[in-house]
Amino acid sequence: MGSEQAAAGRPRVVIVGGGFGGLWCARRLATAAVDIVLIDRTNHHLFQPLLYQVAMAGLSPAEIAAPIRSLLRSQRNTRVLLGEVASVDLARRQVALDDGALLDYDWLVLAAGAKTSYFGHDAWENVAAGLKTVEDALEIRRRVLLAFERAERATDVAQVEQLLTFVVVGGGPTGVELAGAIAELAHTVLANEFRHIDPERAKVVLVDGGDRILGGFPATLSQSAAEQLGELGVHLRLQARVEDIDAQGVTLADGQRIAASTVLWAAGVRATRLSESLGVPTDRAGRVVVGHDCALPGQPHMFAIGDMANLVQDGQPLPGLCPVAMQQGTYVGDVIARRLPKERRAPFHYIDRGTMATIGRSRAIAWIGDTELHGYPAWVAWLVIHLMQLIGFRNRFVVLVTWAWSYFSYKRGARLITERKGEKSLVRAAKA
Amino acid sequence: MGSEQAAAGRPRVVIVGGGFGGLWCARRLATAAVDIVLIDRTNHHLFQPLLYQVAMAGLSPAEIAAPIRSLLRSQRNTRVLLGEVASVDLARRQVALDDGALLDYDWLVLAAGAKTSYFGHDAWENVAAGLKTVEDALEIRRRVLLAFERAERATDVAQVEQLLTFVVVGGGPTGVELAGAIAELAHTVLANEFRHIDPERAKVVLVDGGDRILGGFPATLSQSAAEQLGELGVHLRLQARVEDIDAQGVTLADGQRIAASTVLWAAGVRATRLSESLGVPTDRAGRVVVGHDCALPGQPHMFAIGDMANLVQDGQPLPGLCPVAMQQGTYVGDVIARRLPKERRAPFHYIDRGTMATIGRSRAIAWIGDTELHGYPAWVAWLVIHLMQLIGFRNRFVVLVTWAWSYFSYKRGARLITERKGEKSLVRAAKA
């Protein structure tokens, strides 16, 4: 198809990405006199903070994801397209889609998010699974559950040990959540279900390059998280740099070798390819450097928000968190709705309402203003806040039921191993 | 690993397959003085009667599937293995697994089920999706949802029409359920969510070779089902033989061509490869012909049950239904528990407690003894019975909530398109 024109008189807003930034921007524009086209590579908005629970067989993908089209169905000025933006022509104000279709825009909001980064070690991608998409989560679930199945069939002691060793690289919130959840899975959920192996003997190692985990939190909370992980039996390897990863395990920079069949990667993300194709300044993580109005330098009608933007506030780039993206989405939607020229835009200011990380059943840390919570109160806070933020009544209710059931039964509701397409048989993968 | 021996003194029962037949057999043997090894190619028991709801984005896979290992966790005499049986050595009473491992048995229960059969047209497998596994259901969900996404991006009128035409081949219960569910999806769930296409204009065609659908039911119920499908806008093509299927549509034997991007296959199944590798008599559908005690001819310690067995009762082979497999599983478990020699076994007798098929929201047929139900009462009966039979409190409750939510909101809870592994990008698939 050729270049599509916007309806006469109404400016067209093209939003790239249906994550927290893009969706909140579109919602702010629900009643504005604009035509919106929201483009996403998937058909669903994903509640990323709970993605690790899909990877850990606690929730089903559909419980934390909803069709973008469905979320915006009543917003008549908005059209949703499943597609990928190949490039942006800043001079012509045109976006080119993957199939060559061109889309004119008057306002452009880039909110395409981030992807897992292996810091140049592309070969690690196949052996160390990242966690950014639903597919990633299902792949991790598959690998972790399959490791136990393979161990049950294995006959060699060293092999069993390798199959029951799980290394998580990266001690940020995702790494901490994954490590805690694997330990719980092995030590409570799977206990008594195998006859040849004892899942409680599974070993979980959390590797981080810093001198403490959860570096973004106060040191006291890092310490508390480390203790809570210790109670779950997770081994911490701090100040440890990963030298190499292969299908048999991890080699650290100090020469230590950890034999492990399953390695998960939570050490870094970078902006998607799109940001680097723009020809504008980006930071080391590939994020577009934007001004205080979230606009690109010299491009007052073009914004980048969320994980793909680098916006400096109080001397620091804002972190890649959902609330940042949501607040930026709303801010940019407001600028567009009010058609504010550059000089009349008040600078965006992120309001931090608190951050938290969960470690396991009844275990978490939370940092809200000056208040530091840990253990059970932090976990309850985490539970309530994440439930409230989940989109859709059904999802909230089903997740509540699923969590309550998991809590009381020590079971997980989504322990399926599904085959990957193109793979001859699940059974071959299960062979030890 | 070499040949594994059973524990001294306790006979080993090897059960192949964790479906209804295998699972019910294992459960009957829970307290018997035997060692059980249950082998399945997947890690989960699947509630097949609701699989079409996964394909139609109504339920998540985990809501109708549960880990076999978990279901049998408290049964200490039972070991569950993820694996595939490659062959059976009847003389040595040994089962060979896919990796060459050998397993001795004293009693062998084959309950490996059936797979989709294209009656020799292997090329159709890629273009006409069958519905036997969780992966099948996710693939159908992906194709159906993607067809609407592609149509929204398409610009050519004929192409849009082809993308919005869905052909279901086979007018048995699965075909009827799929056809009705696609029509509902298009005409209610997706209505108002697209801007360029009108999903209500989607066309669903149900093709069957017989002179009525649901041939196993009384003619009055077939008639009622046809009327109910008609109310949903499904087009019936009876006495129509499929001549060819390709990526663009279906050609019927009378020369008619139906241009359709999505074709679903519900026309036939046959027993898995295992049954033919045994060297014993099989019927045209590859099913092992068994005696009235479910045992193979001349093999009193070896049974075949469920979809992979042909057992003649009242002059007819029993149909491939869950209750048949369940009752046979219990029967065989009983024979083994009581170590009954061939001559003391009472013949298996299937008790038909009724069959039903659902057509859509408030639409179904049910045939229970001499009672024929259709419409709303049949649908309520269907709902209650299927909910009760679902395994696990959580699943039952979550499915109930999901159904209630779907019923009142006209939404579907699992409308995710997930990528297939090995595919470069979902977006390419979405290109019209």
Briefly characterize the structure.
The structure is a homodimer. Chain A has two domains: about 10-40 and about 85-115 and about 270-345, FAD/NAD(P)-binding domain; about 125-265 and about 355-430, FAD/NAD(P)-binding domain (3-Layer(bba) Sandwich), CATH 3.50.50.
Walk me through this protein's architecture.
Two copies of one chain form a homodimer. In chain A, helix 1 packs parallel to helix 10 and helix 5 runs antiparallel to helix 6 (157-163). The longest helix of chain A has 20 residues, at 134-153. In chain A, 31% of the residues lie in helices and 25% in strands. Chain A is globular, with a radius of gyration of 23 Å. Chain A is built from 13 helices and 28 strands. In chain A, strand 1 (12-16), helix 1 (20-28) and strand 2 form a beta-alpha-beta unit. At the A-B interface, strand 4, strand 5, helix 5, helix 12 and helix 13 of A face strand 4, strand 5, helix 5, helix 12 and helix 13 of B.
Task: Offer a few descriptive terms.
FAD/NAD(P)-binding domain; homodimer; globular; six-stranded mixed beta sheet; 25% strand; 31% helix; 2 domains; five-stranded parallel beta sheet
